[in-house]
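Why do we care about 3D structure at all? Because function follows from shape, and shape follows, mostly, from sequence. That is the central idea of this module. The next example makes it concrete: a single protein chain, its amino acid sequence, and then its structure expressed as tokens.
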Amino acid sequence: MRLRRQFKSQRKQVVGFGHQAEQQFDQHVFKKVGRIARVRRFVIGWIGLLILLMIGVALQTFHLASYYQTVQPVDGGIYREGILGTFTTANPLYATTQVDTSVSRLVFSGLLQYNEKNQLIGDLAQGFSVDTRGTTYTVTLKPNLTWQDGAPVTSKDVVYTYGAIQNPDAQSPLLSSWQGIIVTAVDDHTVTFKLPRPLASFANNLTNGILPEHILGKTAAVDLRTSDFNTVKPIGTGPFKLNALEVDNADPKTAQEQLAFVPFGGYVGGKPRLDQFIIAAYSNQDQLISSFRHGQLTALAGLSSEPAEIKDMPNAQAHNMLLTAGTYVFLKNSSPLLGSAKLRQALERSTDQAKVIDKLAYPTRPVRAPLLKDQPAYDVNFLQPPPDAKIAAQLFDADGWTLGKDGLRMKDGKPLKFNLVAADLPEYATVGRELQTQWKKVGVTVELRLLDPQDFQTALSFHDYDALLYGISLGTDPDVFVYWDSTQADIRSANRLNLSEYKSAVADEALESGRTRLDPTLRNIKYKAFLQAWEQDAPAIGLYQPRTLYITNGTVTGLTNNTINTGTDRYKNVQNWQIRQARVTN
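And the structure:
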């Protein structure tokens, strides 16, 4: 009974609480709902203010973030470079084509290299020294160098590399530059190069890639050119290591080769910033251009001019990197016609460099001497004279070439006529036609012969021309012995690079003396006689500095347009290239 009474009492309390809650809710909620209408503008105002404050905070946060953050290049990404040509070897002893030299430059590095200012600095080497006689060069390797397989780099690798070059059985095109030089390992990190005679420009020969003795040491020299090391298993010390090689098409006319490289963490210049570097070699130029237009390539190389299909692309950037080279018209001094210095001088005075350069698709510098303006020993007192029609006419007349009523110059009943040979490339075709036009105005008939690569190489090797339109590499050193010394015109010469077949006792003595003097001031003095002889004899007509064309699809941070020595010098700081961008907090 007590429990029942307690239960009833509790139930009454619950019911009472319920009635009390209803009364309170009715009094404080339902009876006040009607008052909301009278204060709705006040409520809406507060709600609106709250929304505005939230929007303001959001905008302020956004703008502050953009203020403290900037878009900057960041590491990573895959760089795809298309090159016209085919891949045959990565071995620096044999690489000569654009594709091969590009691959070799990525995989291998040399004792020395050129920096951004085109100055010779150490790469694998800390530097070099020369003895007082100028016949012994000593090179010291940097510490803790490793090959891409982890093996240490030592002086044995250096000795092996140059020994292979000097071995005739290896058939390296570098052989002629290394004859008579004794290479010795003093210790694991020191190498000496003993020359048969002083050579001031010798250090420039130490930029070629070094090979691993521990891999190739047991390979016979005669088998070195065909070793699979050259194609599928190259191991170097360069910024990138070959990871994969793929051939997309077996047809030589449309073949495409993909060479994939990964960064080498032990590279002496620092691990590359890119995640991967791919070289795509195209046999067909149309396919190369199409791949670039469709965004499949980051950059392309190997073209002589910018295609019209690419000029309209908004992100395409053409990089015209001037070469330390000169494009000349080499006048064959040994020919019966052009053997006359007066006639060569007359042609020189009839050539307007400015008009030739205006026909080019890029800005460049004129070349008016056998040396470039930035080279030591260059002298403004001995330059090719400017065009002058009056003086040219006097020189033609003095050499017996009189101007007829038909506007042609004749001598002994024969017209003044010769051929001008050049490679069948758009740039040479344009320049050749401009020269043809200029010389026609003064009564000279020129037959322009544009040859395909194979025929041009034959004409070049055998000097089968009257005049030759061609570019030669001059580099940074004034040693141009191979282009103008009489010995280099001889058919028995290793390279026969005296393309004008110029012979002058004065020039020979100056060239041979200049290259053996280590003191810069003395070298400059020795070369003056050569420059003066060249100006007076006019063995060739200087035109302009050529360029290498490199086209990118967008900005490549780290890529510069500085003057370079070879096309592959675009890679001189490839380890710092970046193609990705992201917002970074300052």
